[in-house]
Amino acid sequence: MTNQADPAASVIARAQSIVEDLTFAEVTRWKREHTGALAVGYMPVYVPRPLFEAIGCLPVAVFGGGDRTDIIRGDSYFQSYICHIPRSTIELALSGALAPLDGMIFPSTCDVIRNLGGMWKMLFPERYGAYLDLPQNLTPALGGRFYAEELRRIARELEARGARPLDAAALREAIAAENARRALIDELDELRRSKPWLLRASEAYVAVRAGTVLPVSEHVALLGELLAALTRREVRAYDNVRVVITGAFCEQPPLGLIRTLEKSGCDIVDDDLQLGLRMIEQPITVGADTDPLVALAEAFLKNGAATACRYIDKAVKGDALIAKVRAANAEGVIFTAASFCDPALLDQPMLERALTSAKIPFTSFKFAENTGQYQTIREQAGAFSDSVKLWGGTP
Length: 395
Ligand code: SF4
Prior knowledge:
The two termini are 34 Å apart. Helices cover 47% and strands 11% of the residues. The protein has helices spanning 9-20, 25-33, 49-54, 85-95, 111-123, 140-159, 168-194, 201-209, 216-230, 255-263, 292-303, 319-327, 342-357, 375-391; strands at residues 39-42, 58-61, 103-107, 128-132, 241-246, 266-270, 332-338, 362-367. Among the domains are: 22-166, Rossmann fold (3-Layer(aba) Sandwich), CATH 3.40.50; 240-272 and 307-395, Rossmann fold. The structure holds iron/sulfur cluster.
């Protein structure tokens, strides 16, 4: 199919160019249109974006430098045996690429992000930087209260730098907009599960990820446009193996690697690549008498996705992954973790054990955001998909 004949091509291309733009031109454009408003960067995996939108800020996810950033100074700030994303983030910051951002939030994803937050404060003492502690206790009375107070603190600190004061009506509106975005992402995800050939995982990936640098209203428009275009798209179905990707929730694999998996005979019918926008698994409900900030905090406690970066209390490791595989009618799992990613790699043996008990085949490899050679991965994924097709098991 030529691009002229593909009704979805232009919106996917636009999303890809937003995702690949390391100058954050969309953020600069937004700031030009919102004089004096703050753009606030954040590291993966999750921050509650409605909080920032409600106080007039643009939340902007920073996923490091991808595969198009030469690390020159970033390496000298970190030991060699950690993942890649902090080095490329420092490289971007030192090169001035993060200049459109008025500050950075470092959520409590892992020790690496915590250290990066400290580094940011030392390198840029005049710019805003905050560590966002996420609750490790899932009761509303303790974890919920703590988390809501953390969010209030950040809103107050940003207000001191020019953001609007936190206002319940504005937060309700921002939460409703986030719910609308989430519903559209759900529609895309459902489409991938039911007709994976109609929207490839790599295409859905850029469409969703574009929303991490856009205001929610613009992302809702982009997703709506894509969904409408897909109703007119005509593509051939392939008899691929249906797989779920897990472990790539923070540092992101290069787009070429996702496409390589697709070319190796896999339909990626679910993944955790852009977990940040999918972290809350249900619409966030705000009762008429409820403080919307409390509702936002409690949504994380009650409906947060089971992932290596979120405490799961009494839930059993692996249950959520098995449920995801079943819901997607997937035939296997590919563990795709960033090299040296402690959260993903410490969880993996427990998840593998659960899959083995459930007789779900899996394979695994590691990547870095700047991985450039895909041949070995293609062969491994190809052997996996062949073996699942032929015998329903691991190679
Ligand atoms: S890739 Fe893993 S170890 Fe590295 S910052 Fe992200 S969660 Fe932490």
